[in-house]
Amino acid sequence: MVQIATNTNFEDIITGPNPVLVDMWAVWCGPCRMLSPTVDDIAAEHPEFTVVKCNVDDCDDIALRFGIRSIPTLLYIKDGEVRDRTVGVVSKDEILERLGKLL
C-alpha cells in the first residue's frame, strides 16, 4: 500500500521500522507519471518496504529539506536518514536493488 505524505505525517512515516521509498513527484510531471506504476507495483509486491508518495507542490517544506531540485526523485531512507537517491525514471530492478541494500 502506498502512503501519501504530508508535512505533518512525513516524519512519522520515515522513522518507522522498515526501509522507506519516497517518491517525490508532481501532477504536472510527465516522467513522474511514467514512474508511478512502478512505485505502485513495489508497494503492492513488497510489504517489507514502506512506500510513500510526496507531491512536491503540496509538501514544499519536505522538498526543501531534502534539496529536491528535479523530479521524479526517489529517496531511499533507513532509520530516518536518506541513504541513497535517484533522479529521473529508473527501472523496477534498480529500485529494488537499492532498497535491498537497506534491509
Give your account of this protein's structure.
The protein is of the alpha/beta class. The protein has a single domain (2-88), classed as 3-Layer(aba) Sandwich (Glutaredoxin), CATH 3.40.30.10. The protein is 35% helix and 27% strand. It contains four helices and five strands. Strands 1-3-2-4-5 form a five-stranded mixed beta sheet. The longest helix has 16 residues, at 30-45. It is globular, with a radius of gyration of 12 Å. It starts with a strand and ends with a helix. The mean pLDDT is 96.
What is the CATH architecture term? 3-Layer(aba) Sandwich
Secondary structure tally, helices: 4
Helices and strands, in order, run as EHEHEHEEH
CATH class placement: Alpha Beta
Q: Within the largest sheet, what's the order of strands?
A: 1-3-2-4-5
- Count of individual domains: 1
Brief summary:
35% of the residues lie in helices and 27% in strands. It is of the alpha/beta class and 103 residues long.
Blueprint (SSEs and pairs):
Layout: E1 2-4, H1 10-14, E2 20-25, H2 30-45, E3 50-55, H3 60-65, E4 73-78, E5 81-87, H4 92-100
Parallel strand pairs: 1-3, 2-3
Antiparallel strand pairs: 2-4, 4-5
Name the features.
35% helix, alpha/beta, Glutaredoxin, 5 strands, 103 residues, globular
